[in-house]
Amino acid sequence: MLVSKSISYHEIETTLKKYSPKLCQEFFLFDYFESEKIGADKKSLAVAFIYQHSDKTLSDDDVTKVHNKFITHLQTVLPIEIR
User: Fold this and answer.
1) Taking a C-beta distance cutoff of 8 angstroms, is the pair 47, 1 a contact?
2) Residue 78: DSSP 8-state
3) Would you write out the chain's pLDDT as a tens digit for each of its 83 residues?
4) How many C-beta atoms surround the C-beta of residue 40 within 10 A?
5) Are the CB atoms for 83 and 5 separated by under 8 Å?
6) Among 18, 23, 54, 73, which residue's Cβ finds the most Cβ atoms within 10 Å?
7) φ, ψ for residue 53 (rounded to 5)?
8) CA–CA separation, 1 vs 32, rounded Å?
């Protein structure tokens, strides 16, 4: 995701925890990047999400639907751009 440098990862993490769906068991930051190419006031954060159901194996379609809805909601709550 592309965000303003003024937004801390802690703020993003708090929002992710607050709005994450039940199927999202875990998430973690795995890459942080800054460059003039993406904008002097921007940073790129890569976050991995782990989705799991306690009673069944999730299909790609199951995960995609939940994840897309989650990301769409996050974009309404935070000023983020998905790359």
Assistant:
1) yes
2) S
3) 999 999 999 999 999 999 999 999 999 999 999 999 998 999 999 999 999 999 999 999 999 999 999 999 989 999 999 98
4) 9
5) no
6) 23
7) -110, 140
8) 10
